[in-house]
Design a protein that fits this description.
The protein has helices spanning 2-37, 41-48, 52-60, 67-79, 98-102, 106-119; strands spanning 82-86, 92-96, 121-125, 128-131. It is an alpha+beta fold.
Length: 133
């Protein structure tokens, strides 16, 4: 009996450590993907149904993400061509599609829309702006 009691705490600590490492790896993926997308924590939160604070806690590895949250976040990654590959040493490799690299960030797009509005642009068709009369 005494031998089995000594084994359990070690196994339990190993599981706790594994969960902690997985949470930190997810946090790193989340920060990298959000940066590649050019989104604020609030903007990503809106897309996946979480608050800015919840995204912050996930990015810091402070909380264990819910399964539904992980699926929603991974769907955003898939939609935008962000892929993660597990490496044998426990790390990961990220691949970002060319379409994502070549597009303006959300902040840049917002500034462009604001500038167009100030200039009276009502639409852009074929790269040519239409101005308010």
């Amino acid at each position: 009996m005494a031998a089995s009691m000594q084994v359990e705490p070690q196994v339990s600590r190993d599981i706790v450590e594994l969960v902690r490492l997985e949470r930190r790896a997810f946090a790193a993926r989340l920060r990298i993907a959000r940066a590649a997308l050019g989104l604020s924590q609030s903007e990503l939160g809106i897309r996946v149904g979480l608050t800015q604070r919840a995204i912050h806690k996930l990015e810091q590895g402070e909380t264990e993400p819910r399964r539904a949250s992980v699926h929603a976040i991974e769907e955003v990654w898939r939609t935008h061509g962000i892929e993660f590959e597990e490496l044998p040493d426990g790390g990961f490799r990220v691949t970002v599609g060319a379409a994502l690299i070549d597009r303006p960030t959300t902040a840049q797009a917002r500034r462009q829309r604001t500038a167009r509005t100030r200039l009276g642009v009502t639409a852009i068709a074929g790269g040519v702006p239409t101005y308010r009369a």
